[in-house]
Design goal:
alpha+beta; eight-stranded antiparallel sheet; two-stranded antiparallel ribbon; 3 helices
Length: 198
């Protein structure tokens, strides 16, 4: 016996209809939002760079930097105002993260960055080094970052580095602190002798 037509109609289910127009509008709206946020971040970056426009050009390495005391391969994670780990410095390319090759000599720290601006920190500008866990935009485990504090253009800066082998960090802290202390003592002695000669 053939079932009634009403029963056959009830058993047939139509395939779900995808609302393509709604889905496309939702994806387009999300993309617009992402682009807008990126634009705001870029404008903020430019504004910060403008505010820091008085920062002088970064020193370059001398022709004879001296014999290497220590070397380090790793990453440069950025620079901030000393003691303020969220106040990122972006002027002069210091905001650009990159690979880095560091060489410490008696004359200072040479920072070579493939794809970004190299710079040199003279020994007289060094203010010390320490181990830390974070710098603007990067947080690692305790002691995961080597922070070198130096002075440039009347500002004290913290620059963060992460060696490929973090066990070399303590040696760098000790050596940089020793060099900065020696330079500071020498500078103070010379200044005192100059004042006395007057």
């Amino acid at each position: 016996m053939t079932p009634p037509l009403s029963t056959l109609a009830a058993e047939q289910h139509s395939a779900p209809v995808t609302d393509w127009a709604g889905r496309i509008a939702w994806v387009a709206g999300l993309l617009v939002f992402v682009v807008f946020v990126y634009w705001l971040m870029r404008q903020g970056w430019k504004w910060r760079g403008t505010l820091q426009g008085d920062l002088p050009e970064l020193p370059s390495a001398p022709e004879d930097p001296g014999a290497p005391l220590l070397t380090l391969s790793g990453r440069y994670h950025g620079s901030t105002t000393a003691g303020q780990w969220l106040d990122r410095i972006v002027a002069r390319g210091l905001g650009t993260r990159s690979r880095a090759e560091l060489t410490l000599t008696d004359r200072g720290v040479d920072v070579v960055r493939p794809g970004a601006a190299d710079f040199f920190v003279p020994a007289s500008a060094l203010r010390g080094a320490r181990l830390d866990k974070g710098i603007a935009g990067k947080v690692l485990t305790e002691g995961g970052l080597l922070i070198v504090t130096w002075e440039h253009g009347g500002r004290q800066l913290d620059s963060g580095f992460r060696a490929d082998k973090a066990d070399v960090h303590p040696a760098w802290v000790e050596a940089v602190n020793r060099l900065s202390t020696t330079e500071h003592t020498t500078s103070t002695t010379e200044h005192t002798e100059t004042e006395g000669a007057r």
